[in-house]
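2024-03-11 09:14:02 INFO worker-7 job=invfold-0412 stage=load source=structure_tokens
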């Protein structure tokens, strides 16, 4: 659904200085031309052909790092950039789409455009990777850094809208989508989440406009009951991830009023009760969640990473078992402490009532008569 910026003026692909291009250089040049035409797959093929001829060429390594970055493979991109720096020796950049790199060693420019358009692009790609993993809050933090570098970047604004939408915050999502649309940018979507890969190749302003229309319809109440409940649960989970338990409780309660049998809501209320230390209530909600509607649906966003992707019924069942286990442990501890201490009578203010003193004997007991 999301896009990272790519345009000819922002490319950092560099061409080495030689009078007669070698086969490796020809493949790199062909790759640069393909990227200028937004043909990422064709560029990738050319760069890998160059790599097969010379796996140590610093320019090829830098270019492959850029391709990996576009595909969201940030760790792989970083490895290519490091290799480009190690293998660069004294190779200088003769021509580059980033003018400030010309005449500099490739080791200084590999993967580096600090504070510039490509830095914004890198942050957007990083955010997209996080959003694909349903880590919207972390993605939003990354995108806010990108926004400081370029407040009018349409891709950053659109991605921020999506990150807010993923958290159920439609009002602020709409603001970001509208800002992205108002840039009237004709730049093309290159990097997108797997869920919406069909958006690639489309203009970012058109993507943002559609997002804006969709959110506006939802805010007008045109979304289904199921969608409303799901959004309230999203907002609750996001609030818990921000340690805002009060807001989370309100969202889960509102969701429960709309659909008392929703499995996700019941499971979330059980988790909240568990956080509150109310294990009996947590056990009750987890039990209800196992029998409720949607219990076989897989968990998307969750406060516990180990729960994501699993069937809700299994998550609720394991949570119930964990709570049961803790209850039993508490009971056993209480029994042990009770056996170690003598029971005592207590007043209402919790002070101990002293044991009564036995009456004094006035007459000594008679001795048996001598035999």
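2024-03-11 09:14:09 INFO worker-7 stage=emit residues=371
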């Amino acid at each position: 659904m999301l896009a990272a910026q790519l345009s000819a003026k922002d490319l950092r692909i560099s061409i080495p200085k030689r009078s007669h291009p070698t086969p490796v250089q020809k493949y790199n040049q062909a790759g640069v031309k393909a990227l200028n035409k937004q043909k990422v797959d064709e560029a990738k093929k050319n760069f890998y052909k160059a790599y097969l001829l010379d796996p140590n060429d610093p320019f090829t390594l830098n270019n492959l790092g850029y391709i990996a970055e576009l595909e969201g493979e940030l760790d792989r991109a970083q490895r290519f950039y490091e290799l480009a720096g190690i293998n660069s020796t004294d190779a200088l950049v003769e021509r580059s789409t980033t003018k400030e790199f010309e005449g500099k060693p490739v080791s200084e420019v590999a993967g580096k455009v600090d504070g510039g358009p490509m830095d914004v692009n890198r942050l957007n790609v990083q955010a997209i990777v996080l959003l694909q993993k349903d880590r919207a809050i972390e993605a939003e933090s990354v995108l806010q850094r990108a926004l400081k570098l370029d407040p009018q970047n349409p891709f950053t604004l659109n991605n921020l809208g999506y990150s807010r939408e993923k958290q159920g915050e439609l009002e602020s999502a709409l603001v970001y989508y509208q800002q992205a649309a108002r840039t009237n940018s004709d730049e093309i979507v290159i990097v997108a989440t797997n869920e919406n890969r069909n958006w690639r190749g489309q203009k970012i302003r058109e993507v943002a406009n559609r997002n804006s229309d969709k959110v506006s319809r939802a805010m007008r109440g045109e979304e289904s009951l199921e969608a409303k409940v799901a959004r309230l649960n999203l907002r609750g989970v996001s609030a818990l991830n921000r340690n805002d338990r009060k807001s989370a409780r309100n969202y889960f309660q509102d969701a429960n009023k709309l659909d008392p049998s929703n499995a996700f809501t019941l499971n979330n209320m059980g988790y909240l009760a568990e956080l509150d230390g109310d294990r009996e209530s947590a056990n009750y909600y987890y039990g209800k969640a196992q029998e409720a509607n949607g219990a076989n649906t897989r968990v998307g966003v969750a406060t516990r990473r180990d729960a994501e992707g699993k069937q809700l019924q299994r998550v609720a069942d394991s949570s119930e078992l964990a709570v049961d286990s803790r209850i039993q442990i508490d009971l056993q501890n209480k029994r042990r402490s009770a056996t170690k201490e003598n029971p005592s009578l207590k007043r209402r203010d919790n002070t101990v009532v002293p044991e009564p003193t036995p009456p004094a004997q006035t007459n000594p007991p008679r001795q048996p008569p001598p035999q």
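2024-03-11 09:14:09 INFO worker-7 stage=report msg="The chain has a mean pLDDT of 74."
2024-03-11 09:14:10 INFO worker-7 job finished
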